[in-house]
Amino acid sequence: MAIERADFLANVAGTPLGNPAFVGDVHGGALLNAQGGTMLVAQTSLIQNFVGVTGALSYARSGGGIANWGDLLVRESLVAHGGIGGASVQVCSYPGAGGGIYNSGTLGLLNATVTGNTVGCILSGIEPNGVHTEGPAALQHVTLVDDDLVTTGVPVELANTLFDGASCIGGNFVSGGGNLEAGADTCGLDGPSDQPTAAEPRLGPLDENGGPTQTFPLLVGSPARDAGFAAACSTIDQRGANRDDGRCDIGSFEHRPGDP
């Protein structure tokens, strides 16, 4: 299945009308790719999609934006401000996994932005959780802002990926070079051109900067500009703009003349 140039806005799974105390396993607020399936999501926005926003979360729930058990590639896309549970849920004995994306198959993220996704509820606390992966995953030119990347120990490959207010949790992160993490080095970055304890990456606000989806621009003085690892550079950015000025930028946004 291929989904291209689409918008998934404010979808909710697991809260049937008239049954606020709904119980049962629920996965995929916007999209679900079952075991054996192949899904491409390209040039698409998934914003404010949730699983289980009322009742008590006592069953398995995952993937506020996308839940995957098959083969999933998300490219030139935005996954933002979704989650599992939230401020309207009092109790969650199982807080859920993957406020933005849950993966139990194979996951690729390319030229994508993941930001502001959460899991949890009032009593146990609400925490950032952008991507939760229990299967192998590869992130290339991804921008994660205020969102954690969680793994159960499976290998997760990182290349030219930017972390701002985001952490790696769970271990077994493998650097393909050119990654930037602001603040502490939670990802264990040790590849060529990595910046494991970088200064403020100087991102502009999430906004329309050209292309079909919103992006975080790299402002003047950003240590991500022209700092990517050449062998891991893609040919375009999230907007579809060419990365052809000699050395690519880290993250999903490539600064071009006329950009903020």
Topology:
Elements: E1 2-4, E2 7-9, E3 12-13, E4 26-27, E5 31-33, E6 38-42, E7 45-47, E8 50-51, E9 61-62, E10 66-68, E11 71-75, E12 78-80, E13 83-85, E14 101-103, E15 106-115, E16 118-121, E17 125-128, E18 131-133, E19 137-145, E20 149-151, E21 156-159, E22 162-164, E23 168-169, E24 173-175, E25 180-182, E26 195-198
Parallel strand pairs: 1-6, 2-7, 3-8, 4-9, 5-10, 6-11, 7-12, 8-13, 10-14, 11-15, 12-15, 13-16, 14-18, 15-19, 18-20, 19-21, 19-22, 20-23, 21-24, 22-25, 25-26
Antiparallel strand pairs: 16-17
Helix share bin:
under 10%
Q: What is the radius of gyration? A: 17 Å
Counting structural domains, the number is: 1
Number of strands: 26
Beta-strand percent range: 35-45%
Quote the average pLDDT: 90
**Distance N to C terminus:** 35 Å
Element pattern in H and E? EEEEEEEEEEEEEEEEEEEEEEEEEE
Which descriptor suits the 3D outline? Answer: globular
Biggest sheet record = 13 strands, parallel
Segments where pLDDT lies below 50 for 5+ residues?
16-20
Q: What class, by secondary structure content?
A: mainly beta
How many helical elements?
Answer: 0
